[in-house]
Each structure stands twice: as structure tokens, then as C-alpha cells.
Amino acid sequence: MLTHTAGGWTNDGNDPMFRAPTLGHAQLIATTLRTQPLSTAPGTAYAYSNFGYCLLGRVIEAVTSRPYAVHVAAAVLRPAGATATEVGRNTRAERLHNEVRYHAAGAGDPYGMNVARMDAHGGWVATAADLVGVLSHMDGAASPALLAPDSVRTMTTPWRAKADYAHGWVVNARGNWWHAGVLPGTTSIVVRTHSGFSWAALVNSGGPSSGLVEPLDLLMWQMARAVKSWEV
């Protein structure tokens, strides 16, 4: 599931995570497993799957015996100093303290999704600084390190089904790893370069067909290259 090779439930018009918004995690999982069989053998083909990450969130809950968001906050966010990151809510009226208002670019309603149910595959509300903090602590560029060196190598090593995707990260031969995110009303990208330099950018507009990811990525690379020296 980390490599999006579970064999089904891809991010298309039949994505389980954007259907039946009134169902909770357990009901959605049971319904999906009953009605949407796998289309390929697990491990053989890449197909981006939000539902697979929803399942991983429930695995974390089973292993740690506590809610997914509680465990992530304790094991990842607080050690990284990412104190402004929380799982989002579903309506404009429920938005978190200092959370922006979202504006769709094209089709889709930013407030028409069950964001809370999307916790493990993109339901978090974060600041760019928090995302960079997590990246900096992930491999020990900042202390404490969240992962052991062997785990970082596994996480960033391409999987056989797709040469530029590892375990949760897009990767390239230069040693850069990154990921983008797009939902109705938001576009984001987070990058960790081979030199250990990291950045994140968040926009409160966008949509699956908005085409904002590549311009945002290019803008951030141009900004990073334009600065000749950085204060530490």
C-alpha cells in the first residue's frame, strides 16, 4: 500500500474515499472490500490509491492501540515541532484556528468532502513551516531523527512497479524526493533535495484539473536557486 501497488481502489472516478461521505472508516472499508474487487495482483502494478492509505491509517491504530491522529501527533509532529498541524474538518464553519478559506479552481467543492475521514491520505491541515520541520527531522538533518537510516533508504528506494516512486515519495536518480497534493480548493508540494535542503508550498486554490502543481513546483525551484546564501 505504501507503493500504491495494492491492486485496486485507484484515484479515479471510483475512488472510495470520495464516495458515500456519511460512512465512517469501518463502514467504508467493509463496503469497498465487498463491492470493489482488486483489478491486478498486489505488488505488480502502480495505481495511486487514497483508499490504501486509509487502510494504513487503520493498521496504525491497530498496532498502537490509539487513534491515528493521536499517534501521529505523539510520534511525528511533536518531536518535529510541528504544533500547528491537525486533521481538518469538513465545513467552512468548522475550520481550524488560522485555517484559510479554500477556493476551487474548476469543478469540485472544497467543502463537499469528508476531510476528517481522509485523515491518513491527505486530511491534514498544516503550515509550510511544519511540513519542512517534519522533513528536516525525518532523516536526522535536525534532531531528533524520526527514522533510522535503513528506514530512510527503504522509504526512498524506487519500487519495481514504478521507477520514480518509492514508499510514499516520488524520487529521481539525483536523490531528490518529493510529493504534491491536489484537492478541490488546495494545491501543495513538499520537496527534499539531495543536498538535504527542504521546502514546502501551500496554495488555497486548485483542483484535480487546475494544472497548478507544475507551476508551483517550478516557482519554488526558481526561488531556492535565486538565494545565494541562507541564514541558519
Average of per-residue pLDDT values: 94
The CATH topology annotation reads as Beta-lactamase
Distance between the termini: 37 Å
CATH architecture label name:
3-Layer(aba) Sandwich
Tell me the overall shape. globular
- Can you count the helices? 6
Structural overview:
The protein has helices spanning 25-35, 50-64, 68-77, 128-138, 149-156, 213-226, and strands spanning 86-87, 103-104, 124-125, 170-171, 177-183, 186-192, 198-203, 205-206. The protein is α+β, with helices and mostly antiparallel strands and 232 residues long. The chain has one domain (16-226): DD-peptidase/beta-lactamase superfamily (Beta-lactamase, 3-Layer(aba) Sandwich). The longest helix has 15 residues, at 50-64. 27% of the residues are buried.
Mind sketching the topology for me?
Layout (H helix, E strand, L loop, with lengths): L24 H11 L14 H15 L3 H10 L8 E2 L15 E2 L19 E2 L2 H11 L10 H8 L13 E2 L5 E7 L2 E7 L5 E6 L1 E2 L6 H14 L6
Parallel strand pairs: 2-8
Antiparallel strand pairs: 1-3, 4-5, 5-6, 6-7
Labels describing this entry:
232 residues; Beta-lactamase; 6 helices
State the gist of this model.
The protein has six helices and eight strands; from the N terminus they run αααβββααβββββα.
